[in-house]
Amino acid sequence: MSSIEKEILNEKYKEMRRIIDDRYVEFYTNPSIARMEPFKIADGLYYVGDKKVCIHLIDTGDGLIVIDSGYFGAAYLLVDSIWRAGFDPKNVRWIIHTHGHYDHFGASEEFRRMYGTKLAISKVDAERLREKPHRAHIDSKKFPFAKVPEFDYEIEDGEIFELGNVKIRCVLTPGHTQGVLTLFFDVTENGKTYLAGLFGGAGINALTLPFINHNEDPEDCPQQMLDSIRKIWDEPVVVHLGNHPGNNKTLEKREQQIKEGGNPFIDPASWQTFLGNLKKRVEMVIKDNEALKAEIAEMAKQR
Length: 303
Ligand SMILES: [Zn+2]
What we know:
By secondary structure, the protein is an alpha/beta fold. Helix content is about 40%, strand content about 20%. It contains 10 helices and 12 strands. Helix 1 (about 5-30) crosses helix 10 and helix 7 (about 220-230) packs antiparallel against helix 10 (about 270-300). The longest helix has about 30 residues, at about 270-300. The chain has a 7-stranded mixed beta sheet with strand order 1-2-3-4-5-6-7. A 5-stranded mixed beta sheet has the order 8-9-10-11-12, with no helix packed on it. The chain has helices at about 5-30, 75-85, 100-105, 110-115, 125-130, 210-215, 220-230, 245-250, 250-260, 270-300, and strands at about 40, 45, 55-60, 65, 90-95, 120, 155, 160-165, 165-170, 180-190, 190-200, 235-240. It has one domain: 4-Layer Sandwich (Metallo-beta-lactamase, Chain A), CATH 3.60.15.10. The chain is globular, with a radius of gyration of 19 Å. Bound molecules: zinc ion.
């Protein structure tokens, strides 16, 4: 791709970024508008996130693990949720990050400063963020002091992250970032054991050419996402956890749970329904990228 084409893509990235920032500005400024009551999903597994970003807490019997932390400036929401779920934040030994974007690690540094919690992420994303921190999208003007934290531990593809009686299988599923981790672990509910699964990065914005260009990611990111979907498609997930609430309809399921009781998070169909829909959306992005590439080549000629 020529430097003029890259310049046009960069302009498009800034435009997309501005639209996203404008849409979220109220939330960035007042994270509490997305506040949610924490709730139990299964034995030892709690939702402690908000209406924008999923955060999960696992009680391992030997300390707590939190998966993702939410936005910069929103650490107080996480602290509040952990207390209200019945736990002490100082017992959080690890925050495991699904991928290296600001909405998933934003609150981590402040949380670590308060409680001495250790931070983990995939080795791939740790390396790529060390190389170019802007890949985390922290250049948004809404977070002028934002930094990528130094991570305490880097997870490899296929690694089992073990603490207490919990074993989290971490599978590399690149696409959304190069180092997305999809997480699997067993949970129990009413004496039965189920596989919980969390697909670690599903946003398709990141697969568009302007984002790929900004992040200096490989151009085949969308194809990588399709390969990742195939890699974890057959996992017998019964408790499907979201990375953002839309993934597994967290908010709707919670509403249903409050109204009707029972546990809508025990849902063997959810995993493949989500992956099937995601696959269709990624295939659309591949077509859109092709069209945009042609359009940009045309624009470049006229400059
Ligand atoms: Zn992301």
